[in-house]
Amino acid sequence: MLPGGGHRLAASIHGQVLVGTAHGRMGLFDLRGGKPEDPLFVYKGFAGAVRDAVVHPKHPLVFSVSLDRFLRVHHLTSRKLLYKEYMKSRLNCLLVRENLADIMPSIKKLAKRRIVTTEPEPMKEQKLDVNPKISDEDWKTLTE
């Protein structure tokens, strides 16, 4: 199904198919046996419909774009998000070059900078005065 129904397909190696949905989900399915309705892998992080997905022919990379305007690069089998970039316009399709040798070092460098999961610093506990004393002058300025 395409535009109205909203499934995007991308072929992978070894009888596997990558499917992106209009509900912002993407999964890798094996069509050779077992239950094809159960995905091998599920890729997360989408906030809008997956518009296009491409599995690289030589590298284990999945390129995808969605309506949330992000270009994402996932590792095919580990499902790890390697790269994420906000696009200024909505992309409907992708064209990925076969030879990535000249841009792989910069992708790895950018991925280290952009995909950083740092824990927020814990907030320091502050003891609040439950019954603060307000002077008459301050009270007048607050109520005027």
TrEMBL record:
Signal peptide location: none
SUPFAM superfamilies: WD40 repeat-like (SSF50978)
InterPro entries in alphabetical order: WD40/YVTN_repeat-like_dom_sf, WD40_repeat_dom_sf, WDR74/Nsa1
Domain of life: Eukaryota
Region of interest: Disordered: 122-144
GO cellular component terms listed in the entry, alphabetical order: nucleolus; preribosome, large subunit precursor
Example of a GO biological process term: ribosomal large subunit biogenesis
The protein's name in its UniProt record: WD repeat-containing protein 74-like
Organism field: Homarus americanus (American lobster)
Gene this chain is encoded by: Wdr74-L
